[in-house]
C-alpha cells in the first residue's frame, strides 16, 4: 500500500477552492481516495473548502456513474464500443439533417460545461460541424443579462466587472447569496471571511432579497423586496443619486450619461417604493450611504437576472457603480486580468442576428433562449427540431416548464447525450457517451479565473489514472467530429489537446513570454498550489471593445426597455410569488446522488410566511399543492419568517423520482422540481432570459 498527496482545485462550483487529496494505491494497483481537505498553501482559497468538495470522491466511486457508451433499446440499456457509438451518432444525426435541414438538430449545453476545460476547448470541434442555429445552454436560465449588458456597454460579453471584495467599504448585494453559492460571476473562495472582513475594517454589508438568506443573516442591513421588482429599487436609487447631486467623476470615457440622467429622473424613490415594497426613505438612504462610502460595490446576481427585467437590472447595477465613481476603481468593481484571457482571444459576441422559429426570441452569441426549446420540438413545420444533443445538462429539471420539455424529448427522432448519468433528461436519449470522472483528467479554469476577485492561475493535474477504455470529454468530441465528417464528406481541421491550447494561451497572455513571469504550462506545473498574480486593478479603459472606445452608458435597447418597465401594471398584492433558493450542499440538479450531501435535515420544502399560511388555513409540515399556469407539484410546507409576506420559496434542482432515472440516492430523496411550475412564457423580453423568480402561484392543501 502506497500513499501519495495531490493538489488541485475543486471545480464543482465557481469558487475553485484548492484541495489536498490523499490517495492510496493497493497491492492490485487500484487507487482509493483516502481524504479530501482544503489546501492551506493555495494563495486564493487559503485552506477553505465547502461540503461539496467531498462529492469529488463520491462521483469517483458512485456505482450509478456510467463508464462506457450506452445505447437504449426500448426500456433497457446496453453497453457498446466507442467506434460503434460514434458511427451510430453520426449516421442518425446526418440522416435527420438530410431529411429535415441543418436546424432540425438542436444542442443544449449544461452548466458543468464551463467547469471542464475539455468541453470548453473541444465541444465546438464537433458541434460546429452541425451548422445549426438551434443552439441553447444554461446561460439563458442564469446569467444572460450579465453578458448582454457587458456586450452593449463595454463591447464584449465577457468583460464583466466583479466586486473588489477585499478592498471595498460598502457591499450592496441584490439577488445573490454567496454564502450558499460560494460566489457567482464573482469567483471568491472563503467568501464568508471576506464579507466579515468588510465589516471588521468598518465597512458595511447590505443585502436586498425577498428572503432573509444565509448572507442576509450576517449583513448589517437586510431589506425585503417584492420579487421581480429590483429594477424599481435600482431606478429609485439612481434617480436619487442624480437629484441629490451624489454622483462622482470617473476617469473612463463615457458616452450617453446625460441621456441616462434624463431618462431616469422621473423614476423617483417615491414613485418606485410602491412597486418594490421598499419605503422611499429607505431607498434614498441606501443611495446616500452607497455614495458616501469611499469605495463601494453594487453586485446583482442570479435573482435579479432571472426576472422580467433582468437585463434592465444588470444595466442599472452597472450605472450605479459608474455614476458613483466605483466602476474600474480599486474597492469598487474591476475587470480581472487572467493569465488566459477570453476577452482578448474571443469575439465580443452578437445579438439578435436571428430569432427562434416559433416565438421570434433573439439569439445572443449564437444561442437562442432555452425557454424556446420545447416549442421548437413540439411545433410542426419547416425547421422543427427532430434531434437533440445534450452536453452535461439536465434541462428537464433546469429549464422552465420541464414537463413540456419532457413531452418534446419523448417525440424526438434521435437524442444523443454526453453525460455521466441516466438522469431526468438523458433517460430519453438513444445514446449516452460518458467521459472520465473529474479526478481522472487534468483541468484549467478558463472561465472562473476570468471572474476571480484576484488575478490567479493554476493547472490541475489528474489525480487518478485514466481507466482503460475510457475517453476524456475532448476525446469524445474528436471521435464524434471524425465520424460525422467522414459520414458527411466534410473536411476536418486539425486540432490539438487542451493542454497545448492552454500552454499557448499562457505564453501569449499578459503574464507569458513577453512578461517577467514568463508563464507556461510547465511553469504552472512547478506551482501545484497555484499562483497569485496580484490584486485587481483599473484596466477597463484600455480593454473596451466598443466601436468608439467609450463606455456606452445609454444603449438604445436599454433606454427603450425603461418604457416597457414604466408601462408594466402593478401586480396584485394578494398574489403569491414563487422564488428559488440555494444551499451550500447542492449545485443545481447534479449534487443529489451523494449521501454525504443529501443527508441531514431535509431542505426540499416550501418556505411560506406564517401570516400567509394562517390566511389559507395551512399548518406547519402539511402537504400542499403549489399551482401555476403550467402545472402543479406537491411538497411539504414550512412556516418561516425568512420569507416576506406574499412570497414562497422552493429550491431548484429536486424532483428526481421519475421512471427510468438510474440515480439511486437522488431518486429516493423527496422533493419536487420548481421548474414544473416556472412558465416558459414568462421572459425578460429584451434578452429572452427565463423568469425563475416572481412566478405567480397558488398554494392550497394537498
From TrEMBL:
Presence of the UniProt keyword Iron-sulfur in the record: yes
Keywords of the record: 4Fe-4S, Iron, Iron-sulfur, Metal-binding, Oxidoreductase
The keyword Iron-sulfur appears for this protein: yes
One Pfam family cited in the UniProt record for this chain: Molybdop_Fe4S4
Domain 4Fe-4S Mo/W bis-MGD-type stretches: 3-64
InterPro entries, per the entry: Asp_de-COase-like_dom_sf, MoPterin_dinucl-bd_dom, Mopterin_OxRdtase, Mopterin_OxRdtase_4Fe-4S_dom, Prok_molybdopt-oxidoreductase
SUPFAM superfamilies xrefs: ADC-like, Formate dehydrogenase/DMSO reductase, domains 1-3
Name of this protein: Molybdopterin oxidoreductase family protein
Organism field: Phytopseudomonas seleniipraecipitans
Amino acid at each position: 500500500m502506497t500513499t501519495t498527496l495531490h493538489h488541485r482545485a475543486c471545480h464543482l462550483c465557481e469558487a475553485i477552492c484548492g484541495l489536498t487529496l490523499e490517495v492510496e494505491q493497493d497491492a492490485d494497483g487500484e487507487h482509493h481516495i483516502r481524504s479530501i481537505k482544503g489546501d492551506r498553501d493555495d494563495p486564493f482559497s487559503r485552506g477553505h473548502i465547502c461540503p461539496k468538495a467531498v462529492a469529488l470522491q463520491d462521483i469517483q466511486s458512485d456505482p450509478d456513474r456510467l463508464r462506457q457508451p450506452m445505447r437504449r433499446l426500448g426500456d433497457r440499456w446496453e453497453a457498446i464500443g466507442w467506434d460503434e457509438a460514434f458511427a451510430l451518432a453520426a449516421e442518425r444525426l446526418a440522416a435527420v439533417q438530410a431529411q429535415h435541414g441543418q436546424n432540425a438538430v438542436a444542442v443544449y449545453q449544461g452548466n458543468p460545461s464551463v467547469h471542464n476545460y475539455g468541453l470548453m476547448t473541444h465541444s465546438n470541434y464537433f458541434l460546429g460541424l452541425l451548422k445549426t442555429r438551434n443552439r441553447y445552454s444554461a446561460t439563458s436560465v442564469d446569467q444572460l443579462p450579465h453578458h448582454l449588458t457587458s456586450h452593449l456597454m463595454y463591447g464584449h460579453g465577457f468583460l464583466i466587472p466583479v466586486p473588489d471584495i477585499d478592498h471595498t467599504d460598502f457591499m450592496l448585494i441584490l439577488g445573490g447569496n454567496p454564502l450558499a453559492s460560494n460566489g457567482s460571476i464573482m469567483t471568491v473562495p472563503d467568501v464568508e471571511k471576506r464579507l466579515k472582513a468588510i465589516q471588521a475594517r468598518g465597512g458595511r454589508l447590505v443585502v436586498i432579497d425577498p428572503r432573509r438568506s444565509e448572507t442576509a443573516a450576517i449583513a448589517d442591513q437586510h431589506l425585503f423586496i417584492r420579487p421581480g421588482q429590483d429594477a424599481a429599487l435600482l431606478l429609485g436609487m439612481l434617480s436619487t443619486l442624480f437629484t441629490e447631486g451624489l454622483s462622482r467623476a470617473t476617469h473612463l470615457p463615457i458616452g450617453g450619461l446625460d441621456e441616462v440622467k434624463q431618462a431616469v429622473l422621473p423614476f423617483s424613490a417615491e414613485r418606485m417604493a410602491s412597486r418594490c415594497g421598499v419605503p422611499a426613505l429607505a431607498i434614498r438612504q441606501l443611495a446616500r450611504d452607497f455614495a458616501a462610502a469611499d469605495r463601494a460595490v453594487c453586485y446583482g446576481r442570479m435573482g435579479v437576472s432571472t426576472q422580467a427585467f433582468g437585463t434592465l437590472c444588470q444595466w442599472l447595477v452597472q450605472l450605479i457603480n459608474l455614476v458613483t465613481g466605483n466602476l474600474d476603481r480599486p474597492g469598487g468593481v474591476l475587470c480581472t486580468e487572467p493569465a488566459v484571457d477570453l476577452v482578448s482571444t474571443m469575439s465580443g459576441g452578437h445579438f439578435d442576428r436571428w430569432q427562434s422559429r416559433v416565438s421570434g426570441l433573439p439569439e445572443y452569441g449564437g444561442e437562442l433562449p432555452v425557454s424556446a426549446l420545447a416549442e421548437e420540438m413540439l411545433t410542426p413545420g419547416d425547421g422543427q427540431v427532430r434531434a437533440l444533443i445534450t452536453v452535461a445538462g439536465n434541462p428537464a429539471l433546469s429549464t422552465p416548464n420541464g414537463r413540456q420539455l419532457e413531452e418534446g424529448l419523448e417525440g424526438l427522432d434521435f437524442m444523443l447525450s454526453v453525460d455521466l448519468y441516466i438522469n431526468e433528461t438523458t433517460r430519453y436519449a438513444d445514446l449516452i457517451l460518458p467521459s472520465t470522472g473529474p479526478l481522472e483528467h487534468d483541468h484549467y479554469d478558463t472561465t472562473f479565473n476570468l471572474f476571480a476577485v484576484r488575478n490567479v492561475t493554476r493547472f490541475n493535474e489528474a489525480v487518478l489514472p485514466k481507466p482503460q477504455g475510457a475517453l476524456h470529454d475532448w476525446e469524445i468530441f474528436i471521435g464524434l467530429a471524425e465520424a460525422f465528417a467522414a459520414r458527411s464528406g466534410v473536411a476536418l481541421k486539425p486540432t490539438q489537446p487542451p493542454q497545448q491550447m492552454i500552454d499557448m494561451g499562457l505564453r501569449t497572455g499578459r503574464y507569458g513570454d513577453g512578461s517577467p513571469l514568463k508563464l507556461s504550462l510547465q511553469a504552472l506545473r512547478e506551482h501545484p498550489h497555484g499562483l497569485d498574480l496580484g490584486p485587481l486593478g483599473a484596466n477597463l479603459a484600455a480593454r473596451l471593445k466598443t466601436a468608439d472606445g467609450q463606455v456606452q452608458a445609454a444603449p438604445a435597447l436599454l433606454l427603450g426597455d425603461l418604457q416597457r418597465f414604466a408601462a408594466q401594471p402593478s401586480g396584485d398584492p394578494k398574489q403569491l410569488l414563487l422564488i428559488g433558493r440555494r444551499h451550500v450542499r447542492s449545485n443545481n440538479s447534479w449534487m443529489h446522488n451523494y449521501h454525504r450531501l443529501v443527508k441531514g435535515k431535509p431542505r426540499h420544502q416550501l418556505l411560506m410566511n406564517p401570516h400567509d399560511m394562517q390566511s389559507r388555513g395551512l399548518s406547519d409540515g402539511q402537504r400542499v399543492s403549489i399551482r401555476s399556469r403550467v402545472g402543479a407539484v406537491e411538497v411539504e410546507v414550512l412556516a418561516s419568517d425568512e420569507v416576506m409576506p406574499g412570497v414562497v420559496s422552493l429550491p431548484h434542482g429536486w424532483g428526481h423520482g421519475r421512471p427510468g432515472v438510474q440515480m439511486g440516492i437522488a431518486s429516493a430523496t423527496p422533493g419536487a422540481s420548481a421548474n414544473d411550475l416556472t412558465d416558459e412564457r414568462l421572459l425578460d423580453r429584451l434578452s429572452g432570459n427565463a423568469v425563475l423568480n416572481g412566478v405567480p402561484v397558488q398554494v392550497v392543501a394537498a
